């Protein structure tokens, strides 16, 4: 009998699991895929938003600013990668400037300090971002904006939770939940789990999980956002996160740096029917490229590495749904779209308070260890790595990102099992460089084969039965260049 079972090991579920691990409780974290962070948590912009981004008076507004303030300490504890870069919302005409003033007013209402925000002129914009468009005539600046690696953050949260006693149940899709007098019985494809409380953090499938207990007084619909990632050669073009002032026609797209120095643009926003459709399309990628040039005109599309898409779990309520449902003991953490990554640590604390109010006794776990060492090792210019070196710390598996055998072995030794090359990628950055796994893909499979004692042919890149149709970057470049 678990005290709490959390359904969904994305960033929200993993953050809740880690927060609950601070107390003497038996906790289960249940995930339908073979790894954590395989849904919306792995495929987004990775922005740690300023509090201004959500409307004052909403849960998003309350939790975004609280979550943002927690990132520095979390990164010091969990070593997932976070940079406080600051960010700009650009205005290109007088109407946009009116929007900036409304943005400033909302930021103050939400609780953003006047010392953290200002509206700046063209000259100040150029000081911060030399490569920004000359058409930008003003900007709202927020110093608390930052960037993180969303999948590395989620993995760090889940890993630390497991190290502190949480039971992680992977490949355990929930197919039914029954409420008994004083506990729930959760049926997965593998087993039946009994739990006094259940937290629904199932992301895009949260409405489906809620319907199992007739607690689905909302719907989740997928909003697809497509992105383009560029090589690090383009990383110098932005120092901060650059937004565009929204208008009735468009919310604009973002141009940003990543924690590892890549240049990235996106997303668009497409309401789609299928909850697993993370395809990318030429029409939408072309739109993203054209819109991004309004902010940063001179990026080189020949330096594109890949396109990808993620699905935001939008709810029919229009705000985060964080509450005890009509079924006592069944807690909703649903509809967590943007700014979900930013808000997740604060969401976790709110869920724990709701559980406590519902009757869950919280006694401090004095053995809780908040620290988790990072996996990725930053290399100095003097790093003497070689291909096929006998020393794992010098043996380079991924040439583009100088990922060593030792780093992959470290990832494999952690408390979350790894089965696919993409799981290695999310932890070490192998496969993310210029060659896009043409060099390291087979080497990673050989290493996994050796360490897991599985035939190379059985090592998969990913577990999903559905393989999205992603634009081939070489074909995309040809098509763009031909126009």
Automatic annotation (TrEMBL):
Q: Output the InterPro entries linked to this UniProt entry.
A: BFD-like_2Fe2S-bd_dom, BFD-like_2Fe2S-bd_dom_sf, FAD-dep_OxRdtase, FAD/NAD-bd_sf, G3P_Oxidase/Oxidoreductase
Record domain BFD-like [2Fe-2S]-binding: where: 396-449
Q: Which SUPFAM superfamilies match?
A: FAD-linked reductases, C-terminal domain, FAD/NAD(P)-binding domain
Name the UniProt record assigns to this protein:
Glycerol-3-phosphate dehydrogenase
Task: Kindly name one Pfam family recorded for this protein.
Answer: DAO
Q: Please report the stretch or stretches of sequence annotated as the FAD dependent oxidoreductase domain.
A: 3-352
CDD domains assigned to the protein according to its UniProt record, in alphabetical order: GlpA-like_Fer2_BFD-like
């Amino acid at each position: 009998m678990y005290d709490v079972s959390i359904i969904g090991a994305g960033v929200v579920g993993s953050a809740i699991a880690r927060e609950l691990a601070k107390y003497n409780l038996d906790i289960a974290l249940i995930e339908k895929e073979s790894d954590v962070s395989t849904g919306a948590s792995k495929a987004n912009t990775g922005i740690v938003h300023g509090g201004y981004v959500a409307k004052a008076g909403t849960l998003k507004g309350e939790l975004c600013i609280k979550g943002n303030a927690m990132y520095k300490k979390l990164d010091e504890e969990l070593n997932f990668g976070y940079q406080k870069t600051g960010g700009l919302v650009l205005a290109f005409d007088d109407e946009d400037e009116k929007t900036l003033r409304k943005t400033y007013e909302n930021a103050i209402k939400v609780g953003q300090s006047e010392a953290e925000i200002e509206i700046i002129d063209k000259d100040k914009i150029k000081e911060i971002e030399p490569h920004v468009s000359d058409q930008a005539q003003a900007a709202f600046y927020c110093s608390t904006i930052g960037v993180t690696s969303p999948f590395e953050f989620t993995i760090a949260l889940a890993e630390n939770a497991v190290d502190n006693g949480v039971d992680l149940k992977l490949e355990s899709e929930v197919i039914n939940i029954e409420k008994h007098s004083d506990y729930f019985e959760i049926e997965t494809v593998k087993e039946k789990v009994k739990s006094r409380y259940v937290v629904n953090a199932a992301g895009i499938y949260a409405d489906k999980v809620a319907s199992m207990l007739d607690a689905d007084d909302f719907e989740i619909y997928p909003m697809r956002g497509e992105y383009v990632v560029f090589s690090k050669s383009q990383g110098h073009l932005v120092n901060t996160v650059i937004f565009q002032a929204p208008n009735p026609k468009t919310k604009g797209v973002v141009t940003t740096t990543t924690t590892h120095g890549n240049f990235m643009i996106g997303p668009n926003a497409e309401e789609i029917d299928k909850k697993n459709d993370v395809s990318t399309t030429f029409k939408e990628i072309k739109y993203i490229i054209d819109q991004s040039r309004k902010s940063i005109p001179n990026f080189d599309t020949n330096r594109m590495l890949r396109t990808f898409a993620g699905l935001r779990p939008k709810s029919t309520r229009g705000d985060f749904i964080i509450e005890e449902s009509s079924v006592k003991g069944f807690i909703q953490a649903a509809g967590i779209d943007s700014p979900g990554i930013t808000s997740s640590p604060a969401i976790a604390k709110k869920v724990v308070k709701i559980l406590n109010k519902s009757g869950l006794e919280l006694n401090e776990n004095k053995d809780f260890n908040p620290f988790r060492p990072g996996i990725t090792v930053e290399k100095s210019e003097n790093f003497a790595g070689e291909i096929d070196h006998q020393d794992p710390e010098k043996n380079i598996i991924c040439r583009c990102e100088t990922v060593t055998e030792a780093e992959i072995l470290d990832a494999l030794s952690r408390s979350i099992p790894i089965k696919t090359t993409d799981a290695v990628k999310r932890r070490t950055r192998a496969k993310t460089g210029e060659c896009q796994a043409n060099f390291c893909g087979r080497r990673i499979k050989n290493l996994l084969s050796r360490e897991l004692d599985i035939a190379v042919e059985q090592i998969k890149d990913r577990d999903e039965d559905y393989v999205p149709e992603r634009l081939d970057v070489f074909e995309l470049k040809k098509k763009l260049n031909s126009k």
